[in-house]
């Protein structure tokens, strides 16, 4: 296991959709170990594989003292009429938080390292995390979901950090 460096905005791996995991081998097991170890720190809610430079569909989470992972996740359900509008941040966009609208409830289905189906669901912070991490695996950042005027402000703040 290794604590991995977080890739930040501007790195092309963050904008590249991740490939499905077709074979669970030592490389994938090592990836999961790294995802779990790297997310296991205060202030970290989730971590997608591409955030540590690996273009495979996997992420880990650290919500309410529960740490887990899922391979090949796909969102199968979102609340359609209940939303949350809180501030959202990202390890790949350090230090910046902006209001981001997300579904209040989300359910993700994927697999574990043994190939068994895994269902991860939740409301509020867990729902936000699930949506955020699947976006990463699809090559999206939360910045892409911001209202235009807020996104403009965010991009200016990112340029000022460089």
From TrEMBL:
Output the SUPFAM superfamilies linked to this UniProt entry. Answer: Peptide deformylase
Q: Name one Pfam family in it.
A: Pep_deformylase
Cofactor(s) the protein requires to work:
Fe(2+)
Catalysis: reaction(s)? N-terminal N-formyl-L-methionyl-[peptide] + H2O = N-terminal L-methionyl-[peptide] + formate
- Keyword Transmembrane helix: yes or no? no
E.C. number, please? 3.5.1.88
How is the cofactor bound here?
Answer: Binds 1 Fe(2+) ion.
Sites binding Fe cation sit at 90, 132, 136
Q: Which domain of life is it from?
A: Bacteria
| CDD domains per UniProt | Pep_deformylase
Q: Which GO terms describe its biological process?
A: translation
- Which top EC class is named for this enzyme in its record? hydrolase
Active-site residues annotated for this sequence: 133
- GO terms of molecular function: metal ion binding; peptide deformylase activity
Keywords on record = Hydrolase, Iron, Metal-binding, Protein biosynthesis
Function, as annotated: Removes the formyl group from the N-terminal Met of newly synthesized proteins. Requires at least a dipeptide for an efficient rate of reaction. N-terminal L-methionine is a prerequisite for activity but the enzyme has broad specificity at other positions.
Protein family per UniProt = Belongs to the polypeptide deformylase family.
Q: What name does the UniProt record give this protein?
A: Peptide deformylase
Source species of the chain: Cellulomonas composti
Starting at the broadest rank, the lineage of the source organism is: Bacteria, Bacillati, Actinomycetota, Actinomycetes, Micrococcales
């Amino acid at each position: 296991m290794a604590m991995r460096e977080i890739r930040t905005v501007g790195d092309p791996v963050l904008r590249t959709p991740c490939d499905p995991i077709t074979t669970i081998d030592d490389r994938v097991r090592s990836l999961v170990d790294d995802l779990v170890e790297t997310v296991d720190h205060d202030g970290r809610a989730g971590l997608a594989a591409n955030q540590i430079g690996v273009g495979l569909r996997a992420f880990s989470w650290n919500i309410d003292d529960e740490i887990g992972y899922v391979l090949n996740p796909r969102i199968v359900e979102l609340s359609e009429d209940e939303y949350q509008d809180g501030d959202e941040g990202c390890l790949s966009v350090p230090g910046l938080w902006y209001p981001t609208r997300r579904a209040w409830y989300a359910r993700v289905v994927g697999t574990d390292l043994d190939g068994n189906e895994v269902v991860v669901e939740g409301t509020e912070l867990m729902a936000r995390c699930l949506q955020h991490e699947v976006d990463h695996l699809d090559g999206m950042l939360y910045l892409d979901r911001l209202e235009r005027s807020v996104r403009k402000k965010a991009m200016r703040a990112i340029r000022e950090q460089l």
